[in-house]
């Protein structure tokens, strides 16, 4: 038994804590600036028409305190973060987690072998409620479609919200200049904001890791400063403001203000905007780091700030509320606070931008969005991404929003609808996860659903009441994004089903490969297809036009599983196509939605290495079966495989592989087996069987040599250039979606060869048209 020394365990524990503290420090710079800058505009928007009653300030403060604690701390930090998909959070991760326990995917590419991947499980809890939920999701097409619709709706809202968070945060901070420079016009404020936004998006290519370390110290100073100002205001103006911790003031506030108090909930929910992005950005950090930095850093700082502002407002009810935050700052601290507020507001947009990058990456794996370039900015943390196209789009959209709407009031109302709807959808998906995955008492699940769904729908109703005053804008943007997602996914599913229905039968494949006019040219041909079963119809189309194929052909399907990562040892799934002499294989390359696609050269090297393993193991199985029948006493797993000396250490032993340039030499090991385990050859009545097995071993080596030789002769990547059109008798809506919208998206999206990093000199495209 191997026992880890005590000092190694201590070092491991220290390393975990060091990593947690490091990530916690980055959390401050990436996640909390948005929540930390919400005091800039919450009171200003809530009391934009003035304070009607002195205790209304206490009522609103009490709502802010308990809303922040309930939705940000309880729901997200201490419940939702545990509903993660192997460390990844957000709406898509919830959908992915549900997909692992119930077959809800709309694309029929599931394989039984996927369940053998160590981190991929199609399981459910043993409770009857989990089985009921699983059967409902798998057998009801409306349930599948509803779940899919909710997921893409939430992601569309999250992306729309990313267009609003930077303008409202930066514009709120820049507006503070008017207290010291009242001559500034609205146009000048707007253009200063636009310049800051452009600069912010220009540095996104540096990556979350660098931005987090750069911004985190500034946000720490900001949080300490506003906490100190809040404490100062509380002591100086009204220590009695602490009475707001009594929820009685909430009821008094609603009793006095009635409908007006209900409508103000839309502005109050701005105090916890950014929490859903915090959940989505979990893949950048860890649960412990977020909980630690939130509980001991953000929470006390933000609450002190709101309490201090409320204390100031209770003694200055006649003042202008539009700049409540900056008015409450001691005059000697105005400029340092303004500079930090400006920096923190810019940084506050980082959480939403990071969320947009993660969301778009997830949409790619779900085949719900045209292809874009995804760059991983950190070698240490795989979830940290940068997407140039998305960054440019957000930059342009944020500037347009700022120039068009010019004030925080309209942007705030538009912001509210995104927050409220994503809250509700997250609660619905989390309830499904609790029923399907978690082994939690049903009464706890019911309590969670009732408490959060009831309160969140009240907030949502308040926002929808002001629909024409701003909420329509993000819904319109979300509708456009959803049309793109739905059309792209619809055509993708239809194309996959078309290819599945028109797969080439084994007899037809055999006939094609045995055609007398078919020429086999040297080299390895990698034929990319989306099908995970069978040969696609584009293959006979290619042979019909150009009756020439490579000596070794591998049909490759790149498939994303609903898990964050797939280990490279479990990545490739091979099948050999008959006849065996044709050297044609099918391969499914399985990735998680956070795995990076390798460069073409690295991919081929790994593919060929594991193809060699497959050829060995397949032949070993064929050889072992007759040997097992003749010699039942022999353990098949006792075979010992050797390889030719290569001058460097390799791997040996049954179940292990060899490097691509190394060839197995099984003759010696088989001789040892026959001599020592079976006995001398002249004592074997079944010696002919052993001889046949020896010949099979020699064939393994020959097949591996053939594969390696063809790789050395050159690799050609074959991609289908598929044009999809609607059938002539299709309805008008389908023709518009397929022939115009999808065609436009396909022509303007990133090409498949660029996504796969295929060298242009080794690329062969085959054109074909599908009618769906």
Automatic annotation (TrEMBL):
Coiled coil: none annotated. One of its GO terms (cellular component) is membrane. NCBIfam families: kup (TIGR00794). It is found in: Membrane. The keyword Membrane applies. The keyword Transport applies. Residues 25-508 form the K+ potassium transporter integral membrane domain. Potassium transporter. Keywords: Ion transport, Membrane, Potassium, Potassium transport, Transmembrane, Transmembrane helix, Transport. It holds the Pfam family K_trans_C. One of its GO terms (molecular function) is potassium ion transmembrane transporter activity. It is a multi-pass membrane protein. Belongs to the HAK/KUP transporter (TC 2.A.72.3) family. Residues 522-772 form the K+ potassium transporter C-terminal domain. It comes from the Eukaryota. The chain crosses the membrane at residues 57-83, 147-177, 189-207, 213-235, 262-280, 292-313, 333-360, 385-405, 417-436, 442-465, 472-491. This is Potassium transporter.
């Amino acid at each position: 038994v191997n026992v880890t020394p005590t000092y190694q365990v201590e070092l491991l524990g220290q390393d975990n804590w060091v990593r947690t503290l490091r990530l916690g420090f980055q959390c401050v710079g990436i996640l909390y600036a948005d929540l930390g800058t919400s005091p800039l505009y919450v009171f200003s928007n809530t009391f934009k028409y003035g304070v009607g009653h002195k205790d209304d300030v206490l009522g609103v403060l009490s709502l802010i305190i308990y809303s922040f604690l309930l939705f940000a701390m309880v729901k997200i930090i201490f419940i939702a973060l545990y509903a993660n998909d192997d460390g990844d959070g957000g709406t898509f991760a919830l959908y992915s987690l549900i997909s692992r326990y119930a077959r809800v995917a709309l694309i029929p590419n599931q394989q039984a072998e996927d369940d053998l991947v160590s981190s991929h499980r199609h399981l459910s809890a043993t409770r009857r409620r989990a089985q009921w939920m699983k059967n409902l999701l798998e057998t009801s097409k409306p349930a599948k479609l509803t779940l899919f619709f909710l997921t893409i709706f939430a992601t569309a809202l999250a992306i729309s919200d990313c267009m609003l968070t930077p303008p409202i945060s930066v514009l709120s901070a820049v507006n503070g200049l008017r207290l010291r420079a009242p001559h500034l016009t609205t146009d000048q404020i707007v253009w200063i904001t636009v310049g800051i936004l452009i600069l912010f998006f220009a540095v996104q290519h540096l990556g979350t890791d660098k931005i987090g370390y750069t911004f985190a110290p500034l946000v720490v100073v900001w949080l300490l400063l506003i906490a100190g100002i809040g404490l100062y205001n509380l002591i100086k103006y009204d220590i009695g403001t602490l009475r707001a911790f009594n929820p009685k003031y909430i009821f008094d506030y609603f009793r006095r203000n009635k409908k007006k108090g209900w409508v103000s909930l839309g502005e109050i929910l701005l105090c916890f905007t950014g929490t859903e992005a915090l959940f989505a950005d979990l893949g950048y950090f860890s649960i412990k780091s977020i909980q630690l930095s939130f509980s001991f850093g953000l929470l006390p700082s933000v609450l002190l700030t709101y309490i201090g502002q409320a204390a100031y407002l209770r003694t200055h009810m006649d003042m202008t509320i539009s700049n409540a935050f900056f008015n409450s700052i001691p005059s000697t601290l105005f400029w340092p606070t303004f500079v930090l507020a400006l920096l923190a507001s810019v940084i506050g947009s980082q959480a939403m931008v990071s969320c947009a990058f993660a969301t778009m990456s997830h949409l790619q794996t779900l085949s719900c969005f045209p292809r874009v370039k995804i760059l991983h900015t950190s070698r240490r943390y795989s979830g940290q991404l940068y997407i140039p196209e998305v960054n440019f789009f957000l930059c342009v959209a944020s500037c347009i929003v700022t120039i068009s709407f010019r004030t925080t009031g309209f942007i705030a109302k538009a912001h509210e609808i995104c927050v409220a709807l994503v809250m509700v959808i997250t609660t619905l998906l989390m309830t499904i996860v609790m029923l399907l995955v978690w082994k939690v008492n049903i009464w706890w699940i019911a309590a969670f659903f009732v408490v959060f769904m009831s309160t969140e729908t009240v907030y949502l109703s308040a926002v929808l009441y002001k629909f024409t005053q701003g909420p329509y804008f993000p819904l319109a943007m979300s509708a456009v994004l959803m049309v793109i997602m739905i059309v792209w996914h619809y055509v993708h599913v239809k194309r996959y089903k078309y290819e599945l229905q028109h797969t080439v039968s084994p007899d037809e494949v055999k006939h094609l490969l045995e055609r007398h006019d078919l020429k086999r040219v040297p080299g390895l041909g990698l034929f990319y297809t989306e099908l995970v079963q069978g040969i696609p119809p584009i293959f006979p189309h290619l042979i019909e036009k150009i009756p020439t194929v490579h000596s070794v052909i591998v049909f490759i399907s790149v498939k994303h599983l609903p898990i964050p990562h797939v280990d490279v040892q479990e990545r490739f799934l091979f099948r050999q196509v008959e006849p065996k002499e044709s050297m044609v294989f099918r391969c499914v390359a399985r990735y998680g939605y956070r795995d990076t696609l390798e460069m073409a050269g690295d991919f081929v090297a790994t593919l060929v290495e594991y193809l060699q393993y497959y050829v060995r193991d397949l032949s070993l199985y064929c050889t072992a079966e007759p040997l097992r029948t003749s010699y039942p006493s022999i353990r098949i797993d006792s075979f010992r495989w050797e390889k030719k000396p290569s001058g460097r250490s390799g791997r040996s032993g049954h179940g292990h592989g060899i490097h691509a340039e190394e060839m197995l030499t099984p003759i010696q090991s088989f001789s040892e087996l026959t001599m020592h385990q079976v006995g001398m050859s002249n004592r074997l009545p079944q010696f002919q069987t052993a001889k046949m097995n020896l010949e099979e071993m020699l064939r393994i080596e020959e097949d591996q040599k053939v594969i390696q030789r063809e790789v050395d002769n050159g690799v050609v990547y074959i991609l289908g250039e598929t044009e999809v059109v609607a059938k002539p008798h299709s309805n008008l809506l389908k023709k518009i979606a397929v022939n115009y919208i999808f065609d436009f998206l396909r022509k303007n999206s990133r090409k498949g060869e660029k996504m796969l990093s295929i060298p242009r000199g080794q690329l062969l495209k085959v054109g074909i048209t599908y009618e769906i």
